[in-house]
Specification:
This protein has 13 helices and 20 strands. It is α/β, with parallel strands linked by helices. The strands form five sheets. An eight-stranded mixed sheet has the order 3-6-2-1-9-11-12-10, with helices on both faces. It has a four-stranded antiparallel sheet with strand order 13-18-20-19, with helices on both faces. Helix 7 (about 205-215) runs antiparallel to helix 8 (about 220-230). The chain is globular. The two termini are about 20 Å apart.
Length: about 425
């Protein structure tokens, strides 16, 4: 794989890779192999698998702030950010035990500056001078992912999967590529647990990976891909369970490189099939057929921070009314339904229905821009298996359909075969 010529490298290890001391030692051996090649390394780590959930449960057990006091989201961040602090210290200790110069750097020491949206903060700036000088001196800098600091010095966390975003942000600040080590050995044409003939992709464009991440693929967090694309950071996904050989080399063409579309010589029409079961369908029956009615509905949802994906409007049986269907994440669905029901008179609809037994199936590929017949292949493959779709959404490089959840895995396998992905 072609990589930018630089001696700096950011490596990121996820929760399963940090799961216990033996796995931390394995990660340290992988890091040591890169250091032996003359790389100047910063490492970003997640908390041990399951630790963040435990810490969140502790904050829940402590209970909310008393009436009249502000919310305790800032103290929640102090607690849940500690998981990454533990693993960064343990990894630095392990590297030192191996004779390597290593030091942990907390988010506030770099600093990784974020806004003040505690629990879901967004990175605003990562000055790279101090950290860059440290790695250039030969020190291995170990950075806790998932955490940052506000401009007034309060600890923040970035939300689920935030360590991926931390790693890409540090890589952008250092002008380095980013290797993300996880429990899979790359990005596949679909989930291998559903389709045994899924194939690992050598390269995937930023745009394809962004669609895959947002549509159900669990390999990378969506915000990390957005940041990598904006900053043009090459990202490689690798398995932390495949160690380098005696020469410090990984198998040839290991992992998947996330890169600019121009670096992919042969562009596939479809690169992958994804499935998301985190979906719910809400239908407003008998909505007044006013020109401003949909705007009223979606303005209310936006103000409540409910993300909406697929939208379908159809004629209702009642004259002068329509049925409006939209999808949202399952966690948001009940809140959206309660909000719509509370405003039923103002919005003007007869009945609300919610269905969580649905799944979103998507086909993704940059080659769709220049090839006709992609949709026809999708609909024919689903029809041949007797799968009915309830809604459709498209972009330049993806087509998504909403179907009954019971048919989701069947649909994935059918589409994987229809586009010849098992032959890549």
């Amino acid at each position: 794989m072609t990589r930018p010529e630089t001696t700096r490298l950011v490596m990121k290890f996820g929760g399963t890779s940090m799961g216990d001391l033996e796995r931390i030692r394995r990660a340290a051996r992988i890091i040591a192999a890169e250091a032996a090649k003359g790389k100047q390394i910063a490492v970003v780590v997640s908390a041990m698998a399951g630790k963040t959930n435990e810490l969140v449960a502790w904050t829940d057990g402590a209970g909310p702030a008393a009436a009249g006091l502000p919310l305790s989201d800032d103290e929640y961040d102090v607690v849940v950010a500690s998981g990454e602090q533990v693993t960064s210290g343990l990894l630095a200790l392990t590297l030192r035990n191996m004779g390597l110069d290593a030091r942990s750097w907390m988010g506030w020491q770099i600093p990784i500056i974020t806004d003040d949206a505690h629990g879901r903060a967004r990175i605003e700036d990562v000055p790279g001078d101090v950290l860059g000088a440290a790695v250039d001196s030969g020190q291995i800098a170990v950075v806790p992912g998932f955490q940052g600091v506000t401009r007034d010095g309060r600890i923040t966390t970035l939300g689920r999967g935030g360590s991926d975003t931390s790693a890409v942000a540090v890589a952008a600040a250092l002008g380095a590529p980013c290797d993300i080590y996880t429990d899979v050995d790359g990005v596949y044409t679909t989930d291998p647990r559903i389709e045994s003939r899924a194939r690992r992709l050598e390269k995937v464009s930023y745009e394809e990976m962004l669609e895959m991440a947002s549509l159900g693929a669990k390999v990378l967090q969506t915000r990390s891909v957005e940041l990598a694309m904006a900053k043009q950071v090459p990202v490689r996904v690798l398995s932390s369970f495949i160690e380098p050989d005696e020469n410090g080399n990984l198998p040839e063409n290991a992992g998947t490189l996330i890169c600019d579309e121009d670096e992919i010589v042969e562009k596939r029409i479809v690169s992958g099939v994804t499935m998301s079961r985190d979906e719910a369908r809400i239908t407003l029956l008998g909505l007044a057929d006013r020109t401003d009615a949909p705007a009223d509905v979606f303005t209310r949802l936006a103000e409540a921070n409910v993300n909406v994906d697929m939208i379908v409007q159809s004629q209702a049986r009642t004259e002068g009314a329509v049925n409006l269907t939209f999808t949202t994440g399952r966690r948001d669905a009940q809140r959206a339904a309660e909000m719509m029901t509370a405003a039923k008179a103002e919005i003007g609809f007869e009945e609300l229905r919610i269905d969580a037994d649905v799944a979103k199936i998507s086909v993704i590929g940059v080659g769709m821009r220049s090839h006709a017949g992609v949709a026809q292949t999708m609909f024919r493959a689903l029809a041949d298996k007797g799968v009915k779709f309830q809604a459709i959404s498209t972009s330049e490089i993806k087509i998504s359909v909403l179907i009954e959840d019971a048919y989701s895995e069947l649909a994935v396998r059918a589409l994987h075969a229809a586009y010849g992905l098992d032959a890549l």
